[in-house]
Specification:
Elements (H helix, E strand, L loop, with lengths): L1 H8 L1 H10 L4 H8 L3 H11 L11 H4 L1 H10 L9 H8 L3 H13 L13 H12 L4 H8 L4 H10 L13 H13 L1
Length: about 180
């Protein structure tokens, strides 16, 4: 009886608080000196719809997600291996996958970011993008038997692999063949 009379005295203020704010029922209960169950019953009997709290944006608040976004904005970020990213951020497998899946679903990062699993391939692509070397030479330097097949496979899968910086002219190819024949 006491609770009902307390609520009747402050009915207008309570109704306004319930309709306009997202303050939890426990806090409203302590504010008006009743239990949260009494506040809930009051709101239910009056048919008051409470406003919903806005959801927190995970990608904007999470430090791991922000650092993943920062890494993904670097040039040729699709060709950074997941192992290197985990090492930079000091993450374990499940944590990395959780955050990267969130970012991929929201389409904040490329769906190909973090999919490369070979450090040798990562190093080969770094050389491929920066130095004017033949693809075969890059593969030998890194330790990949057929780097050209990696490039071809990634192009087929839709990765943006540009043409190599080094191209043979007919004269270069002839000179290279002559050098091989002399040796």
């Amino acid at each position: 009886m006491r609770k009902i009379s307390k609520l009747r005295r402050v009915e207008d203020k309570l109704t306004e608080d319930l309709k306009r704010t997202t303050i939890p029922l426990r806090q409203l209960g302590t504010k008006y000196g009743v239990t949260y169950q009494a506040i809930f019953d009051f709101a239910h009997k009056k048919g008051i719809k409470r406003p919903k709290r806005p959801k927190r944006e995970h990608a904007n608040n999470c430090l791991i997600c922000l650092s993943l976004i920062k890494i993904s904005k670097t040039p040729h970020s699709d060709f950074i291996s997941s192992l290197t990213i985990k090492e930079k951020l000091k993450l374990k497998g499940p944590t990395f996958l959780y955050h990267i899946c969130i970012l991929r679903k929201k389409k904040i990062i490329s769906p190909k970011f973090g999919r490369l699993h070979s450090r040798k391939a990562e190093l080969a692509y770094q050389l491929y993008f920066t130095k004017r070397l033949p693809v075969v030479t890059i593969g030998r330097q890194v330790g990949l038997k057929n780097f050209n097949s990696h490039i071809w496979k990634h192009r087929v899968l839709g990765w943006d692999v540009p043409d190599p910086l080094f191209k043979f002219d007919s004269n270069d190819r002839k000179a290279a063949l002559k050098r091989k024949q002399r040796v």
